[in-house]
Amino acid sequence: MDNSQKMSTLKKRLEEWQDQVSTMAERPVSFNTISGVPVKQLYSPLDVDKFDYEKDLGLPGSYPYTRGVQDNMYRGRYWTMRQFSGFGDAFDSNRRYRYLLEQGQTGLSVAFDLPTIMGYDSDHERSLGEVGRCGVAIDSLEDMETLFDQIPLDRVTTSMTINGPAAILWCMYLANAENHGVSLRQVGGTIQNDILKEYIAQKSWIFPPVPSMRLITDIFSFATDHVPKWNTISISGYHIREAGSTAVQELAFTLADGFAYIEAGIAAGLNVDTFAPRLSFFFNAHLDFFEEICKYRAARRIWSRHLKERYGAKDPRSLKLRFHTQTAGCSLTAQEPENNIVRTALEALSAVLGGTQSLHTNSMDEVLALPTEKAVTIALRTQQIIAHESGVANTIDPLAGSYYVEALTTQMEAEAEVYFDRIEQLGGVLKAIDCGFFQQEIADAAYLYQLAVERQERIIVGVNRFNSDEKPQIELLKIDPDVEFKQVEKLSKLRKKRDNNAVSSALSELKVTAATNENLIPKILAAVKCYTTEGEIVAALKEVFGVYKEKPLF
Amino acid sequence: MTSKKIRVLVAKPGLDGHDRGARVVARALRDAGMEVIYTGLHQTPEQVAETALQEDVDVVGLSILSGTHMTLVPKIKRLLVDNSMKDVLLVVGGIIPEEDAMVLINEGYADQVFTPGDALEKICSYITGHFT
After folding, report:
1. Per-residue CA distances from A339 to A230, A377, A473, B22, B51 (Å)
2. Residue B2: what pLDDT?
3. So where are chain A's domains?
4. A24 at interface of B, judged by CB pairs closer than 8 A
5. Is residue B2 part of a domain?
6. In this model, does residue A372 exceed pLDDT 60?
7. How many beta carbons lie within 10 A of that of residue B129, not counting itself?
8. Could you report the per-residue pLDDT of A318-331, keeping only the tens digit for each?
9. ipTM of the assembly?
């Protein structure tokens, strides 16, 4: 029998089987993914009949990278275990980082407090009550020095979740590394630096889109010339998903942002192959196991195809979508928080089976507060158990060839392409942000999801089913209320002891350069080196760039 | 009880940008028949009180997920009282540990506190119940 005969026989048998099972009772639920995508009861070769192994999968480390970006993936080395962490002042967080490194963590990831994220110094009136709460308070190079005290910056790579003021925090990190004898060519790490998803979902913006995009292309260009090992951007779907999007929206909006950065770099006169290899991604790992795995596989395939075919990239490194994953904060429940350990383990497993390059596993208590040392240790151990005990890292992309996984991967790719067309029709990502397209799509999805939970169409164990009235008995991390006071005092001492003439001239130079097209990074670097604070630099840039305002919608 | 619609201001004070909860609740209150005004993000306590006064609302709903509730809620309550809005129902939603919620309610800063996992229906019926 040739292949087409086999297929038609299979088709006939499947139809018979379908008739038979359609008379059988099914559980009274809708069989959808967590994103609302219908799932069939069975997948077979008929669902992948147009599938072409070479064209759609290829080998790991080769185009279109569906099976992974490295040739040997986890056979060579495991993903980087990188717990996002930061609280209190630089001293508190430094202690936590050194603890995590001692426990076998392999990279650092800095969480900044909201004043730092929004570009205010700790003594600004808008910072009142916020200092050191959601992350670590960093005002100047002095705090950055404390934060990385006794940490070998030539060996440990650091990821910093910072966007609006990314250039400033990056310059502080670089200046500190240089002071420790680590050259800019040696130093490695990532800045999130993804402003588009701030307007779309995370909502921590400072400047309007045009000057924000200029800061980003300035970073691309400076890093290409001077800091070649740095990941200049981490294009993030994580926050889009946390804001309530579906998996396909996360995939499509994130990659659309990625294309917008590629286009901005090209428009700034850069050759795509000089900066595309340093672009990285950041995805969410939500609870729908197979949907998540397919999302990562589809993301790699889409990125490589667009980079090659649409943007003419030639360097294979430009075509590789490398990504960090964090398990879904929004999937955690305040009720019976220990259950979150299990949710996180399932999510982490999907990220590993999807070929992530680095991973953060949430701590069980993160829905209630920043994690305690005990909770974060369990979260890290979860990754270590997946790596060293489960056996899933023994072979590369082990789910490839599954009829369901391949069919869903292809389907998600096709649905993402539909979104790319819609965004294009709206005039591109910036125009789509301006008319509230992404924001409305995400708000709609979030509301539909919540209604499904309310109606018990979606079950959350311990919340709307199988719940007990017992109050959670777990210990929570308390932020020392003196942190704000101590930080403000430290800052006022700094303002007295530094060379204030150097600071004012650095700030005036910064403003002059901001009004031209010249690269701003050397000026920011000069400003941080003389201990100009983050808030002072942001305030100066606001005078030239203005601030962003969103139209509130719900 | 008149047939006048309950007017609610949903507000995001502070620097926190997490607006999923605020926007979902705003929509649920609207679907439950209330008149909803949403402030948008990054509001100062003064801006929240000012909008509440201008919009002549019956309810102020604050959404705070950044742990800043013990600073922001009392401040907003005081501003409402100073602006002759002491009878405005003040509800708070967010990541609020139970002991903090007890303090906010017992000290009279907030009328009610809702936390993750609370049903939309519970929030809507608390508010409508108050005006029945």
Report:
1. 37, 16, 13, 26, 41
2. 52
3. 79-454, 492-532
4. no
5. no
6. yes
7. 8
8. 999 999 999 999 99
9. 0.90
The number of residues making up chain B comes to 132
Q: Say yes or no: B20 contacts chain A, CB-CB below 8 A.
A: yes
Written as one letter, the residue type at A376 is V
Joined together, the tokens standing for residue A239 give 């926050």
Q: Is B63 on the interface with A (CB under 8 A)?
A: no
Q: Which of A118, A198, A333 sits opposite B15 (nearest CB)?
A: A118
Task: Write the CA distances from A88 to A107, A536, B39, integer angstroms.
Answer: 20, 21, 29
Whether B32 is in a domain gets the answer: yes
Taking only the tens place, the pLDDT of each residue in B8-36 is 999 999 999 999 999 999 999 999 999 99
* Close Cβ partners of B7 (under 8 Å, ≥ 6 residues apart): B34, B35, B37, B55, B56, B57, B58, B59
Task: Flag if B20 and A242 touch (Cβ within 8 Å).
Answer: yes
* A443–B70 CB contact, under 8 Å: no
Number of structural domains (chain B) is 1
List the single best residue of A125, A203, A240 to mutate versus B (max B Cβ within 10 A): A203
Task: Look up the domain containing B99 and give its range.
Answer: 7-130
Domain at B120, CATH number: 3.40.50.280
On whether any CB of chain A is under 8 Å from the CB of B19, the answer is yes
Would the CA dihedral through A118, A123, A126, A130 be positive or negative? positive
Task: Residues A79-454: name the CATH superfamily.
Answer: Methylmalonyl-CoA mutase (3.20.20.240)
Q: Which residue among A133, A334, A369 places its CB closest to the CB of B68?
A: A133
Which of A242, A330, A552 is opposite residue B38, by nearest beta carbon? Answer: A552
The residue type found at A313 is A
